[in-house]
Design goal:
The structure is a homodimer. Chain A is α/β, with parallel strands linked by helices. Chain A has four domains: 163 residues, Molybdenum Cofactor Biosythetic Enzyme, Chain A; 48 residues, Molybdopterin biosynthesis moea protein, domain 2; 83 residues, Molybdopterin biosynthesis moea protein, domain 3 (Molybdopterin biosynthesis moeA protein, domain 3); 73 residues, Beta Barrel (Beta-clip). In chain A, 19% of the residues lie in helices and 29% in strands. Chains A and B meet through helix 2, strand 15, strand 16, helix 3 and helix 7 of A and helix 2, strand 15, strand 16, helix 3 and helix 7 of B.
């Protein structure tokens, strides 16, 4: 059996960038993955400007007197005259500091006299309340690197250097296939022995949360030839195909045989719980090999296996520079395993809740992988390394579930 | 000056649910906010079923012999016959356990003899590898509560109990107005004294990340009558209006006067840095009072003020049960303020990065609020309470920036 980190690395070693690029406009930057590194072409700010509403002054003029007349008013967006000798300029936040001024005093520290002169209450230091040209960004500086997912703060930064369009990676098309004769669709009545298909909607939602184009490949047919035809049809339109169920030893359906006929499939035995062997291979299509993942049919196992192995692969193939699961340190508020049990031989991911302040972690009472409500209750998965017993107070790692 | 928590509470006390509801289908559950509490109408699983591929057996039959013949094969989705006495049933994961069987032995612990009988290598305990009816969820159990944002795990859980449609809150329409004569649009050349409008795109992106319908209200005109007309037009189509810039003391534009004419506006002095006074009020429209927020024009201040005050208000108005900022505990790897400075009188939010494992927090070298690149570099804001000096190793609170 491979341990989790080795299995993930093996899978990632086989992962290539699959996304093509497209040009998008500023209004559509949000959540897109940058396909180019962007450098600034301007200084920000582009000139020395005022950090306050107040008065621009040449400090040397205040050596012997404490009040000066106002010679101009400078609003943001205007182009000021040089400061006349022995005068001040009324200035507003963001407005350019005039030539000849070397400080701005905030208005709260001044008083306008009856004769219109401005009196300075405190001494003023050269450079006070001036934001310097290029203080934020210098022309040529790298602003955002290729592989970043553009969030609001990146979008703001790109806009602030005048960038109105960038190359991004097109979202990969990821198809989801469901297998299992026992599956009924939500909204329909259950026949004896049937259960509702939850993986289909859970996986499609996971893919959408991550920014992929999620394709519903439907329910796999129950004979070999139809399954082959369905896999071929799906792989013609998808960049990556994921099935849930149908690829374990003993599974009574045709996905495994069909994938092996159309392409190639490996079963990976990974020392992880929950999780059965993960199937990883490809489907040969007219446009080349389409990567194929076979997840366990059990929804909790499918969820955990997706997060640990499939998500990093998808994010890397999409061009993201950060694709590994983001583990956080936290403190256990639980014991695991139960006192009468030995530590497991497989790395475990317990369904858990971490309180933000204090970062104490409690676990869902029923850790059976049959219990999907455990995942819904959780806000993280708590990692228990193989062979390790966790006691309250132990420092552990968690994988947050909010994406 | 109000402290941050009091100011937020004051603002939230004035916040009512503004979202109306609509019915959505399962495929569109993702990221929506649940407007009803959903309870299960079925047991999950609906019957005792096998947790393994293996053999269903009546343990009492193995008291004297270790091999039994196979009387039936039970696949998932089928309805089995009662188990014939002194036989076993071949059974697959998820398939119903037949009446008369009280355990399942995994196939790895069995051997099929030449005569077709199944030999049991180990002793089998009653109840082994059986998932009990209702073990995950009992009919009547609450599954997901009103006010939850539906993520993949909730969608999977709802599907697993057969829910194909739910009532959700319609996304609020939130309009963004930009003020400032000095603003140029990204993509255009800068005139002397101009800067690029970054707040517009940063705020629209923040709103989209949070699931709102973001409306671009454009740039505010530069005379009072046009500003009034523009605010009235925007408030007729929006549930909430946000402006950036234009509402501080001394600002040279017409938003403040226009809001006070059309509705009402309070300037809140909050002890927070970065952040100027936050303006909060409403615009009177034909359909009632439309809440109005006036953010600082400085992009870093606008970003921080949005996260601390506007976001909680918007999330509460949208119907989310969890709307407060999610602070996390972490450990400082920095000193603040500098040794030659006194701790501040205002609560500060430093632009910072937290490493997941270890949860050590470093801060961006330049904490000037003019520096938007600091926010882009960060993955969290580090909270420094008023009057407190932070030293390396101190336990602090951070606000993660990924949404």
């Amino acid at each position: 059996m491979l341990d989790v980190a080795d299995a993930r690395q093996n899978i990632l070693d086989r992962c290539e960038l699959l996304a093509s690029t497209e040009l998008v406009m500023l209004q559509a930057f949000g959540q897109r993955v940058l396909a180019q590194t962007v450098s600034a072409t301007i200084n920000v700010p582009g000139w020395d400007n005022s950090a306050m509403d107040g008065y621009a002054v040449n400090v040397a003029d205040l050596q012997n007197i404490t009040a000066l007349p106002v010679s101009q008013t400078i609003a943001a967006g205007t182009h000021p005259q040089p400061l006349a000798a022995a005068t001040v300029a009324r200035i507003f936040t963001g407005a350019p500091v005039p030539e000849g001024a070397d400080a701005v005093e905030m208005q709260e520290n001044t008083r306008v006299r009856d004769d219109g002169c401005v009196e300075f209450v405190n001494s003023v230091k050269p450079g006070a309340n001036i934001r310097r040209c290029g203080q934020d960004i210098k022309a040529g500086d790298q602003v955002v690197a290729r592989g970043a997912r553009l969030q609001a703060q990146h979008v703001g930064l790109l806009a602030s250097v005048g960038v109105s369009e960038v190359q991004v990676y097109k979202p990969l098309r990821v198809a989801v296939l469901s297998t299992g004769d026992e599956l009924a669709e939500p909204g329909e009545a259950l026949e004896p022995g049937q259960i509702y298909n939850s993986n289909r909607y859970m996986l499609l939602c996971l893919l959408e949360q991550l920014g992929f184009e999620a394709l519903d490949g439907g329910q796999v047919a129950d004979d070999f030839d139809s399954t082959c035809a369905q896999l071929q049809a799906v792989s013609a339109n998808a960049d990556i195909v994921i099935s849930s169920g149908g690829v374990s030893v003993g599974d009574e359906d045709h996905v495994k045989a069909a994938v092996e006929t159309i392409g190639q499939l490996d079963l990976w035995k990974i020392a992880v719980k929950p999780g059965k062997p993960l199937a990883f291979g490809h489907l040969d299509s007219a446009s080349g090999a389409v990567p194929f993942f076979g997840l366990p049919g059990n929804p909790v196992s499918a969820f955990v296996t997706f997060l640990l192995f499939v998500q990093p692969y998808l994010l890397k193939a999409q061009g993201l520079s950060e694709y590994l699961p983001s583990m956080l340190s936290a403190t256990a508020d639980f014991s695991w395993p139960a006192v009468d049990k030995k530590p497991g031989k497989r790395e475990e991911y317990l369904r858990a809740r971490c309180s933000g302040v204090g970062r104490r972690v409690e676990i869902y009472p029923n850790q059976s992988s049959g219990v999907l409500s455990s995942v819904s209750w959780s806000n993280c998965l708590a990692r228990v390394p193989a062979g390790v017993r966790i006691e309250p107070g132990d420092e552990i790692e968690i994988l947050p579930l909010s994406i």
